[in-house]
Every structure is written in C-alpha cells, then in structure tokens.
Amino acid sequence: QIAMNLARSGSGEWTLVDDDAFMPHNAVRHALEGGYVVGRNKAECIAMYMNSLSPSEEIARFLPVNYHRPEDQHNQLVEAITASNLVLDMSASVAVARELSDEDRESRAVSLFLTPSGEDLVMLAEDSERRLRLDDLEMLYYKAVATNPEFEGHLKINGSAMRYGASCRDVSVLMSQTTVGTFAGIGAHAVRQTREDSGAAIRVWRMHTRTMSIKSLNVELDDFEEVSQHGWCVRISRRLFANVLAQREERLPNETGGILIGGVDHARRCVHIVQALGSPPDSEEGPTMYIRGVKGLQAERKRVVTATAGNLDYLGEWHSHPRGASTLPSGDDAKVFDWICKLAEDEDRPAIMLIIGENEVRVFVAEFEPLTEPICLPS
Q: Rounded CA gap, 354 and 327, in Å?
C-alpha cells in the first residue's frame, strides 16, 4: 500500500523484490485486491498496477526473488540496489534489515514495519552518508522501547495468530484494514520527507484504536564506537560511555559498576551495547574494590526483555577504577570475567566487560587476553 501510494503521487521508478505469492488473507493489508491475482507473485502484480498508472512509460519492474537467496538473479538484484538512491525495506524481517546494513553501497535504506498488534508503525531511516545503519537504528529503537514510558505495550501481541496453511511459517495475525490503510498513508508521507532530509531518523506512530488518533514519537539518535575482538564486532553507544563516566564521577572516591544491556546477532557475530544499568543498592563499593549487588536487578532485566520482545538482554558487566588508577584489570577482574564467560557460554554469545577509568574505557570481548588498547574518551 505504501509503494502504491508513492507511485500514485509520482514518486520515482521502482524495482519491486519479492518471491512471495498473493494469498486471500493478504487482502486485508495489501494493495492487491484478490480475484485473478491470487496465487501470483506479489512483486509482478504490483509492478503491473504501477505501470497501469502511467501507460506511456514503464515506472516499475520486478524481481520475483528472495532477497537472501536470489540465485540466478543475483546480478540483477545487485544492479537494482546499486542503481537506486533509496532502498525501501518493508519485509518485516530483521534479517533483511541487518543484511542491508552490511552492504557497502551509496544508497541509503529505510525500513518500515508494523508492530505485532498492528497498532504502531515504525520507521528506521539511515542518513545519506550511512554513518548510522539500520542495525544501529534498530538497537537504539529497542533502547527507547525499554526506557521511555511512552512506549509501554508497544510490542505486545493482541489476540492469537491465525494459521492459513500447513507449513510452520504459514501463520498470520489479524489486523484491521482501517489501521493498515491509515499507516500506509503516514508511511508514504514519511518516505517522501526522508528523501528530502539527509539525516538519520527513528520515528514511531502510535494509534489509539478507539479514537483513531495518532501520536508521533521521535527516538533520540546516538553514535557508536566499534571494537573488533576475537571474531566479534561490538558497537557501543557513545551515550553509554558518557553515562558510566558520570556514574563513576558521582561515586568517587569509591568504585562502582553495574550490568550491560544490548542485542546479539549470532549469524553476523555482531553485538550492540546500548544501556548500562547502575549499581544495585545492596552493592559493596570502596576505594579499591567493588562487589555488585543483586537487589532489583533481575526484575529490571526481565522488564527490559519483556518490553523489547527479547531483543535486548544482559550482556556483561561494567565497573570503574578510582582516580589515578589505569584501566588495566586486576586479578579479581579476571575472576569476574570467567564468571561472565560461564553465563555467556550457554547462549553462544561473547562475554563482555568494560573497565572505566579517568578518561578511558577498556573493553574485553569473548577472551580476557591478550589485552587490547583502551578507548580514549573526552574529559
């Protein structure tokens, strides 16, 4: 529906990529109307609809392929993406958005999707220089969902899923065409605005289903520091660094610490750390020691996991060192890291520890040795 809205407004030339066939249950939220198109490829039929709007020239072509497995049409897919100035991802697939993040290309990507209830629309838009990519924006979005009260219930699922076929993936969710159509109009307008603006953006539109009123929320952006260790790429929010430095300063002359929250992509061996929870009230803090407590921590972790539908979870530990001390680890730090490794091993993810000093942070990923150089931070 968003693509058709844009085509009707004269926006651009299109290459539509989809290997899926149109089924009767799709009609409630799709631009196709059923009838003779049932069983036919969605991309082919939408291209036909688009071209019927402008019979004097072809504005749309199609590739009936799976983005992940284009097989013999791989070159055509690469050519289409390379030639585009905007890649619009409406697959509702995390894997597609993350693969788009990894591609080295000039064209920026925008991802649009409905939440499981169908009551909220989300847009993740890369900047024109692709400094923030879709996977970075995804994790910042989850952080907002976990920390901003205005997102309460954002990722909830209303009702039960409906099975329409025998395959394990043949499951759909009931949605109102009224809601989908409203969001299709908003989404089309947002795409046009994004094309005119070179900056990155995370926007969420929440609908009050009784009044049909819409609340628009902008999510705060942030840059990331990247660390590659032992086969893992770890991207750490710069605002997180500012947060732990402030907590260290507040607790001096004592040490302090807490836990790290973020997301893991096992297939890409990529980790995003977006939040650092502070020291629990039952922690022991001293000028040369820190023992993290547990009071309230499990409840807060569970709340974050539930709010983000499991996309954010515990990743590791952070603690500070006192004035005049470096970020070089102590023997006790090594013991704590071994403990984190045991927790991480069951989930096939890397153990992570941050040690916070005066103006630097030392990052440990997966293995404690050899030591890597610390990250220097502004004072």
A: 9
